[in-house]
Amino acid sequence: MAAIGAGHLTAGLSSALRQELAWTSGRLSPNRSFTPLPALSTEQPHVSRSHTVKAEPEKPFEDNDDLSLKDYFEQSKNLIISDGGPPRWFSPLECAFRMENSPLLLFLPGIDGVGLGLILHYQKLGKIFDVWCLHIPVMDRTPFTGKLVLLVERTIKSENSRMPNRPIYVVGECFGGCLALAVAARNQDVDLVLILANPATSFRRSQLQLLTPLVEIMPDQLGLRLPFILSLMTGGPLKKAMTSLEKGLPLQQTVEELMQGLVMDDILPRETLLWKLELLKTASSYANSRLHAVKAQTLILSSASDQLLPSEDEGERLRRTLPKCEIRRFNDSGHFLFLDDAVDLVTTIKGASFYRRGKSVDYALDYIPPTPDELKRAFEPHRWIDVATAPVILSTMEDGKIVKGLSGVPSEGPVILVGYHMLLGVELIPLSSSFVFEKNIILRGMAHPMLFEKLREGKMPDVSAFDTMRVMGAVPVSATNFYRLLLSKSHILLYPGGVREALHRKGEEYKLFWPEQSEFVRMAARFGAKIVPFGVVGEDDIFELLLDYDDFVKIPYLKAQIEELTNEVVQLRADIGGEVANQAVYFPGVLPKLPGRFYFLFGKPIETEGNELELRDREKARELYYHVKSEVENCISYLKEKRQSDPYRNLLQRLIYHAQQGFTSEVPTFEL
What is the pTM of this model? Predict the structure, then answer.
């Protein structure tokens, strides 16, 4: 979506600089009008907002990644021109259109101070946030502990007073991370969400300190261009300098090597770089001394290949120190994380369940459907499952006729898909992808809380391992979330058998482990939801279960490991009896087979609309509950019988068919 609104710059922006800021193709242009934001010395006024639009809740967003690293450098050249003005906020034109009630996002830049660090993310951020970026002019000498902290604090307090029930996001990289922590420590009563990329709180343990003596001995006639500073931030030239020093080369020769090949234009004086390094040192000390006072929800983004700061270790330290902190690691990224085109900030925020527009996350209203690029990243690594199992998707029409495809599943919600959970949930990828590509519907799966939180550190995978599932619509199972999804008319994927069914024992394939209580029926009737029972078979054709829970608990060490894993996650159904209450967490031992085929059958939709009063009666609700369960079992029985007559159930036969008809052709199945 092209941005065509007016940008926000301060009234202190000089006319000369306004003419230099010439973006094209919907970007800032000298003949456009500007809505002023305050300079450092003015009070924060109420500013006019860019346009807001309502996003369709269950349709994938479009990808519009028009800006690149080249745009960053070109636009930085204009912004580093000194105009004598103070630090100020601006809002990129690419962020002009966004969803209704979008929260404010303040971007605090790194040591460069330009404020364009999020340029690769403008298009996506601008759809779900009101984005303001802080610009600190190159020649500015505003002290950290005085006016710089107060500038950000004043903005936050003003916006919080105007929208007290909405969170304020503060994204800081490097130096900006220290500034964000400093402001959060001073404003514990404000609902802040901090997103810190390689924060410079580790300055004293970094190689950056080595830059100061190097710059101090640099000849006065030499200067530094901003692009060179940025290259230092990736660690390349600095690493070269360290290698030279280790070889015993003179320090003066090392400095000369660093300066070789530079075109001496857009020069940054040595004093300015020294000032910024001193500012970074002050910011790091100030933030570290106040970490105990930070209560804000925090997401740390750590680069494992950061050669400038020990960001990976620092991320772990901050995660242990801050009370509401999570971490996401980027193994192949350097220090300048947001300029890495492999990093998608919006996807990271969504995957961590950090996007909200109120005091807490509303998994229905705050959900942002995946973009085409996110869909590709979610499904592409698992495409082999579709290729290997050639899923057969069947559904039942209103007249009872079984047809190929999903035409029998209602397109308008609320719809509850209730079915059987195969071993390890291997059916989820082909199930969710078929709804996306055939019906353009994102299934909202009611998932175990272990995908969202851990009670304690241990051997369970980090919750970041499940980020993709959250991007694709997974919701922690609870009555409240179920209610909200029904209210938003979603397509809800529900497995009453839960963990016990997905981790069943030997000889229990295709057996349902449902609780006695009719957990979902009365809630469905309250909203007139359609219930679609479904069955799926094929797990016994792709692997053999060799070792299950009963085998593992016979070995004391393995039994203790299972108990340790189970105690790390939230327990469900602890207050009910029966086998379904056995929620032990473990990984079964399986032996892969030459893949067979997956078969899905969605039964005839069951109407609940108009039956709310009748289904308030517990016995009536129980009757419908057991009817749904019976329909799921019937779907499974039908598929188990019909697959016997499928000539292409075997992988070898499917490969022969593809060789003859082409690998894009659909493989036939049994006659309906």
Answer: 0.83
Contacts of 584 (CB under 8 A, 6+ apart): 499, 503, 549, 562, 566
**Residue 577: per-residue pLDDT:** 63
CA dihedral of 257, 258, 263, 266, whole degrees rounded to 10: -150
Neighbours of 469 (CB within 10 A): 19
**pLDDT score for 663:** 82
Q: Kindly tell me the burial class for residue 609, based on how many C-beta atoms sit within 10 Å of its own C-beta (0-12, 13-18, 19 or more).
A: exposed
Q: What are the Cα distances from residue 38, in Å, to 47, 85, 159, 671?
A: 9, 12, 13, 71
Assign residue 474 a region (left: φ > 0; alpha: ψ between -120 and 50; beta: otherwise).
beta
DSSP 490: -
The contacts found for 208-212 with CB under 8 angstroms, 24 or more apart, are 208/277, 208/280, 208/308, 208/309, 209/281, 210/238, 210/241, 210/242, 211/238, 211/273, 211/277, 212/274, 212/277, 212/278
Q: Nearest 5°: phi and psi at 247?
A: -80, -5
- Could you give the CA distance from residue 621 to residue 520 in angstroms, rounded to a whole number? 9
Rounded CA separation 470/442 (Å): 12
Cα–Cα distance between 521 and 531 in angstroms, integer? 9
Do residues 21 and 71 lie in contact, with contact meaning Cβ atoms separated by under 8 Å? no
- Hey, what are 500's tokens? 């016990």
State which amino acid sits at residue 46.
Answer: H
Strand order in 325-330's β-sheet? Answer: 88-90, 130-135, 104-108, 168-173, 192-197, 297-303, 325-330
**CA–CA gap between residue 527 and residue 364 (Å, rounded):** 15
Query: What are the residues facing 302 on neighbouring strands?
Result: 329
- Average pLDDT per 10 consecutive residues for the chain, totaling 672 residues: 32 29 28 31 37 45 62 77 80 79 95 90 93 91 90 96 95 97 97 97 84 63 48 47 55 48 46 84 95 97 91 95 95 90 95 95 94 93 90 96 97 96 94 96 95 86 92 94 96 94 93 87 94 96 93 93 89 68 85 93 95 86 95 97 95 92 90 92
Distance CA 604, CA 610 (A): 18
195 Cβ neighbours under 8 A, 6+ residues apart: 169, 170, 171, 172, 298, 299, 301, 345, 349, 354
Hey, what's the torsion of the CAs at 166, 172, 177, 179, to 10 degrees? Answer: -70
Contact (CB, 8 A) for 109 and 31? no
User: What residue type is 150 in one-letter code?
Assistant: L
Phi, psi of 517 (to 5 degrees): -70, 140
